Amino acid sequence: MKRLIFFGAGNISQAVIDGLIESGYKKENISYIDRNQSNSSKLQKQKIKKYTFNSEQSSDIFILAVKPKDALGAYAEICSQVKKPKIVSLVAGLKSKKYLSQFPNVELMRAMPNTSSRFNKGITAIYNASASKSTQRKVTLLFKKVGIILDVQKESYMDDFTGLVGSGPAYFFYLLQVYEKRIMKISNGDLKKKNLMLSNLLDGVSKSIGSGETTEALIKAVASKKGTTEAGIKSFKKAQLLKSFDKGIADAIKRAKEISSEF
Predict the structure, then answer these.
(1) Domains in the chain with CATH codes
(2) What pTM does this model have?
(3) What is the pLDDT of residues 151-190, one digit of tens each?
(4) According to DSSP H, which parts of the chain are helical?
(5) Residue 97 and residue 191: Cα distance in Å, rounded?
């Protein structure tokens, strides 16, 4: 197994690390670099060690997972310490040419996982900017451990993926807040019961989608003529809920495209 160094140990890094460990990846092959004490404490409790640059690091794979404003500085730090490093950037929006214009002698890839990687249900888009086929294969196998992967042939598609899937879990959590309030009411404020009800509801939806039916057919299977479901759907249509939801995703994709020009 290759040693993975997470440069930046925030939420997405922790999600991927949790998923890797759950899939059997050895903790001793994972290290991190992060000055944030809270992030460090979480990983140290999991017995993940802090990384120190040394002379035996040519085969290490660096996972760059910092904020866009810090990405080029972190990239430069790695490149100043390691000869022809293998770097996988998880940074939203920042194009590979930005990195490679600073230090071109790098095996660089971009990947965009989502937080469902924590439960090995992640979806990760991968774009190979300058890595060897061998490195690409290793990185692909790594992210397959935490879910499914999508090989992206055009780097511009990474922005679409970021706004659509990378941010995707948060959209559903946002919509579920309405459900959460109403379920809390009918479950007499029982938090445990509320969480179980939401979990079962979403598990059922997931299994229904896995059956191969179209979403339109699944809606029809629930909605009866002049029934409660039909009344709710009509109200959503009148409020143009789908149009509003689609605009939110489009704005997220637009923001991903804007980030590259800011740094």
Answers:
(1) 4-164 (3.40.50.720), 168-260 (1.10.3730.10)
(2) 0.89
(3) 999 999 999 999 999 999 999 999 999 999 999 999 999 9
(4) 11-22, 37-45, 68-81, 96-100, 133-144, 157-161, 168-186, 191-210, 215-222, 228-238, 241-262
(5) 48
